Structures are given as C-alpha cells and as structure tokens.
Backbone:
C-alpha cells in the first residue's frame, strides 16, 4: 500500500504534485525491493474524505503519482480513491495503465464516516465498458471497515459476497472494523466458502496471522504493518516489510499468488486480459497472457 501525502486542496496538503509523485516512486521502489509483489496507491492522507466523488485536481494528482509508480515497476499496480470515488479510481487506472481498482460501496449501502455510501456496481461497470477498460479488475470491499452496517444487519457477510459476485465483482475484500484491525477469521472463512471469487484481506494482517489468513485468503493488502511502529502515518520500515513478506510467503500455498498483495508479473507495456469466471479462485487472480 502506498499512502500518498495530502493531495492539492485537501486539509493536509503540503506538497506539489511533482513532489507527491516522487514520494510514490520512492515508496514503490522500496516495497518492490523488499519483496512485495503488487502495489496499491491510495489517497489516505486526504482526510476528511469527500463522499463518492473528488475534484479534477485529485484525479490529476493521483494520475501523476500512479504513472510514477507504473513507470518504476512491472509489478501489478492498482488504485483506490477515497471515499467511494470509484469512477475516479477507474479513470486514474485507465490513464496510468494500472491493473485493478479497490472499490467500496459496490453492493448494498452503509453509513461511512463521510455519510451514506450506496451501491455503485451498475454505473461503475457501465463506465468500465464504455471506456473500453474491461482489462482493469474491480476488487470490492464488503461490509467495509470504518462503516456502520445496521441497515443491512439482516444480510450476512457471506450473502453480501454472493451479491458482489452476482454483480460481477472480480474479487471481494474482507476487512476488520478499522485500519490496522484484523479481520474476523470466521467471517473470512464464510466468504471464502460462499463465492468462487478471489478473496482478499483488507486490513490487520501481520507476520503473526499471515499464515492463518492464507488458509482462506488468496491475497493480503498491507498498509500499517509495513510502517514504523505499525502506524499507517509513519514512514515505511524495510525490516518490517521483509519480515512480513518472509512470513506471508511461507504461509501461502504453492498455487497461490505471491503475497502480500497480488499476482504474477506483467510488463508495464502490456495490459492483462479480463479473466473469465472460474471455480479456481487462486488462478483467477493470475493475469492472462498480454494482448
């Protein structure tokens, strides 16, 4: 996970876009050098977040940062734009040649820090089709962290995962209640048994629980555990990253994608083809041969 510094116009903005892009490039190089297999760019420092959309200045700055990351590695790269600015994320991914987006509020609705987020699957997948961007995978949070889910209390996390699959998600993400908080292992198991999609862990992974998570998870998204003191606001810590990667790779099966985040290598100049529905969830995370 690459947490970008505050972007232009946000309360914590301090850097110009070129400096933000340099920051992203340096973090990408560090993560790849320490054995991470894929990268996810996020505007974590833009708090408090806007709900559902962002301005053109955010899209522009994130595209510049994403391009800087894309240019320095052949590893799969993705983007998330908080909070729930999913079409903006898709636009950034398309412009920067990225491989996936992380999406919140894909199905159902919940009350987030920013207010009510409603299901976006219909408009988002129509945008992906219209923009000729179907090579970009959409990994979707379900019962997302930092949210109240009382309005769907009668819908289990397994049924939510099934709804995401029915609405053509490329993979589902299970997280804890907040950034850095571990997932409920029983919920992770329920989701893995409910759908024939890749299942990703979206928070709270660490060297101690990585091998357990890989009993049911196909990939792990890591942010806080890679930082000094496990604090998401702190700089990256090479020793922590290497220790995590060593533990995580020891816990994943030989058929799994290489942890901690995503799958096989692709060259930056090549775009992956969409992967069809398959009952082999781990192989579904692998990119096909380039077009």
Residues:
């Amino acid at each position: 996970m690459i947490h970008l510094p505050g972007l232009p116009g946000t309360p914590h903005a301090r850097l110009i876009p070129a400096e933000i892009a340099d920051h992203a490039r340096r973090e990408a190089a560090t993560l790849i050098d320490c054995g991470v297999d894929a990268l996810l760019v996020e505007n974590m420092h833009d708090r408090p977040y806007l709900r559902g959309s962002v301005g053109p200045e955010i899209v522009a700055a994130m595209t510049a940062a994403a391009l800087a990351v894309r240019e320095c590695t052949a590893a799969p790269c993705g983007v998330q734009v908080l909070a729930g600015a999913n079409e903006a994320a898709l636009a950034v991914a398309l412009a920067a040649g990225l491989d996936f987006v992380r999406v919140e509020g894909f199905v159902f609705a919940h009350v987030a820090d920013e207010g009510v987020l409603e299901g976006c699957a219909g408009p988002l997948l129509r945008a992906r089709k219209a923009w000729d961007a179907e090579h970009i995978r959409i990994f979707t949070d379900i019962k997302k962290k930092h949210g109240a889910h009382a309005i769907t209390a009668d819908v289990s996390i397994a049924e939510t995962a099934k709804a995401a699959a029915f609405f053509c998600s490329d993979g589902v993400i299970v997280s804890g209640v907040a950034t850095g908080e571990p997932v409920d292992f029983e919920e992770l198991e329920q989701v893995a048994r409910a759908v024939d999609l890749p299942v990703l862990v979206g928070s709270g992974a660490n060297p101690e629980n990585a091998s357990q998570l890989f009993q049911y998870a196909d990939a792990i998204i890591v942010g806080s555990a890679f930082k000094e003191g496990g604090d998401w606001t702190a700089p990256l810590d090479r020793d922590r990253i290497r220790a995590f990667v060593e533990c995580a790779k020891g816990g994943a099966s030989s058929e799994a994608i290489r942890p901690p985040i995503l799958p096989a290598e692709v060259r930056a100049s090549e775009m992956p083809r969409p992967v069809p529905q398959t009952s082999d969830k781990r192989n579904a995370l692998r990119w096909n041969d380039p077009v």
